Amino acid sequence: MLENFFSAPKTLRRLRAGISGPYIDAFAEKLQRDGYAPASAVRYLRAAAHLGCFVQRQGGALSDIDPNLLEAFNRHLRRCRCPHFKRGKISYHAQFGAKLFYRHLVGCGICPSNSAETLPPKPALVTAFCDWFHTHRGVKPPTLRQYARSATELLRLLGEDLSQWTAPALRDFLLERARQGGPRAAQALIPALRAFLRFLQFRGAVRDDLTRAIPVVAHWRLAKVPPCLSADELDRLIAACEGPEPGRLRDRAIVLLLARLGLRSGDVARLRLQDIHWDCGTLQVMGKGRYEVCLPLPQEVGDALLRYLECRPANVETDRVFIRSIAPYRPFASGDGVSSVVKHALRRAHIEAPAKGAHLLRHTAATEMLRHGVPLDQAGLVLRHRSLDVTAYYAKADVALLKGVAQPWPEVQA
User: Fold this and answer.
1) Which residues form the catalytic set?
2) Which of 80, 192, 215, 253 could form a disulfide with 147 if both were Cys (CB 3.0 to 4.6 A apart)?
3) Strand 276-277 relative to strand 292-296: parallel, antiparallel, unpaired?
4) The pTM is what?
5) What is the pLDDT of residues 117-172, one digit of tens each?
6) Domains of the chain: total
């Protein structure tokens, strides 16, 4: 496999020598499979051989490579005098290539993974809570991790003897967290605590309904106007994604899905090829809590998806629609990647928006539907709101319509 990147016999012999040699051909095959450019793959292969040379000079073996040894290798690169290995401007590529080679060795079982060492084990009760919450509510892993951290901290501070838990102790715990992190931290903590306490009551571990002991942080959800883009700004944003490059075609399809259908970032990241029903022009979307709905696929959005799928790498083994535009080609790990696409598009369009993520376009889609006369209940169906009160939040954005229905206020009449 090295022959795909190097032709000189002397170079091939040198790269296959040393302790990295037995694994470097498989590493080259992985780089090619992941879609790295040949020039980048050449640098990373040289870095893998350089790392092996460094470890061998230290008197170690490949199994000794860990994050600490990688850090020592990075320090070595700044003063490297090793023959056959250049230093200077390409040291970044050497560092990244060494990290990729280490991950490859971990995947092969040569080096031990340090993930189990960095993450403390969860209590058995928290593990059971996460399994129960995922099974019965369909909660996604990022939310489960956040809830597990809160439940673990609660167990650590109040103790594992649940019979000793009281309403004042729970309130004191939440108020202390609010003092440390502010109201926003408390707002994020409240649903996690309530979910964990409901699980304990369901399991029979506590007799009383302790969820009533969790106070509500004062927050007036309807007090603000939702952040959204104007029609002109939305056109500029879509225009900033124009271009024949695969990355631009992908960005345009993502922006149109968010702006026309009001999808969440996670909905777009998890969208599968089989969710697009071309014959009937619909899109199957599964949102929060396994809430599945079939949405109409507008012509503009369908055309953008087709243009992207025609240039999408065909050798990627995934059924996800959207993948990264740079190697390694793989699906977005979460909705954060979709929000990053929107943030970069806003920067290209020179738009100073009140928010930078993908949810800005969901707000924009909601307000645009209401401005064009879509009834509140139908807009709520498209946005998959459980309550009409949530959809009513967007009605305040149509200032012109509100002026038409506003009643005069006697005290301020001229």
Assistant:
1) 264, 288, 359, 362, 385, 394
2) 192
3) unpaired
4) 0.74
5) 455 678 899 999 999 988 888 888 888 888 999 999 999 989 888 888 988 999 88
6) 3
